[in-house]
Design goal:
Elements lengths: L2 H10 L2 H8 L3 H30 L19 H7 L2 H32 L6 H9 L6 H11 L6 H10 L15 H26 L3 H9 L4 H29 L3 H6 L11 H10 L4 H30 L2
Helix pairs in contact: 3-14, 4-14, 5-9, 5-11, 9-11, 11-14, 13-14
Length: 315
């Protein structure tokens, strides 16, 4: 049934075109199919990047389109590197990045190790643990904003149960000291399952005969853990850190839902600062330079990290 329409299409194809198609190599045919996708990627990704680089050397403001654009060289970059507010936002980003990665790796690997032991209800618990990462950041943000409410929120009452403190005596989202930890807790709750799944894949990729050989050599469980489990799961752990590090460096939506960058600028991450410069202060050239600095930072750190990851895989 399918061959008849194809034969009709082939017969309806003009002879000059048919000869050209028949004479094409496999590589040329592959480029015909891949070409449109590459073109779209260039239009969607490469062109905006080049345009942003161009704007970073100007004093352009998007709310003053009729104004003549003046090229000011590296002045935007100098202002950014000398701006104390920028460095405070980068410090907040580094704090958020470090603690979320640390907690997600520790808890994620621990959960993966426990689930890999295969007990009754293993699949059910795996499904329950994975549920948070299936939710959208907007839903998670609103959900935890309610939990953090000092008067009716469940989080304060849980803390009060274990510490004996008054539930209304502290406010996670309104405190300068507690707000950064509030977003760390939420991001850890949401994305630890992602790290757990990657670690679980690494644990289940270890052949059983390696552990059997270690038992024959009378290696203890602790020694097996540090000489077999950790080294063989390390590439998977590093891959999880790479993925989560890139995502958390540009974290935006979850923090906006929880604190909006406050109180004050305590939780104002680099992405939130960039958004305010671009769409509240309308300093388009300045924000473009800031975006390029963030891009170079992430790209540079990721490149170095990938080289380290490749060296670990080659061991």
């Amino acid at each position: 049934m399918i061959e008849k329409p194809l034969n009709r299409l082939a017969q309806a194809t003009p002879t000059p075109i048919a000869r050209r198609v028949k004479g094409l190599s496999d590589r040329a045919i592959a480029w015909i199919f891949v070409g449109p996708t590459i073109f779209l990627l260039l239009v969607i990704n490469i062109f905006p990047l080049i345009w942003t680089i161009n704007l970073s050397f100007t004093n352009f403001k998007a709310n003053r389109i009729g104004r003549e654009i003046e090229y000011i060289g590296l002045r935007n970059y100098e202002r950014i590197l000398g701006d104390s507010d920028i460095w405070l936002s980068m410090q907040a980003t580094a704090h958020f990045l470090f603690w979320t990665l640390f907690l997600q790796v520790i808890i994620g690997f621990t959960l993966a190790w426990l689930i890999n032991r295969k007990f009754r209800g293993n699949d059910l618990w795996t499904t329950i643990i994975v549920l948070p990462m299936m939710l959208s950041p907007a839903v998670v943000g609103n959900f935890w904003t309610f939990l953090y409410q000092p008067q009716i929120g469940l989080f304060n009452y849980v803390v009060a149960f274990f510490t004996g403190a008054d539930p209304s005596s502290f406010e996670m989202l309104g405190s300068v000291n507690l707000a950064p930890w509030a977003i760390v807790i939420v991001d850890t709750w949401m994305w630890t399952p992602f790290v757990m799944l990657i670690c679980l894949a690494g644990l289940r990729s270890i052949p059983n005969y390696i552990y059997e050989a270690a038992e024959v050599d009378r290696a203890s469980k602790l020694r097996q853990f540090f000489t077999i489990t950790i080294p063989m799961v390390l590439p998977f752990l590093m891959l999880a850190i790479l993925f989560r590090g890139i995502e958390n460096f540009k974290m935006f939506d979850l923090v906006v839902q929880l604190t909006g960058g406050g109180p004050g600028s305590t939780t104002e991450l680099a992405s939130i600062n960039l958004k305010r410069e671009a769409f509240e202060k309308w300093r388009t050239g300045y924000s473009s330079a800031f975006a390029i600095i963030l891009f170079v930072t992430v790209f540079g750190l990721a490149s170095i990290y990938v080289k380290a990851l490749n060296k670990v895989k080659e061991r």
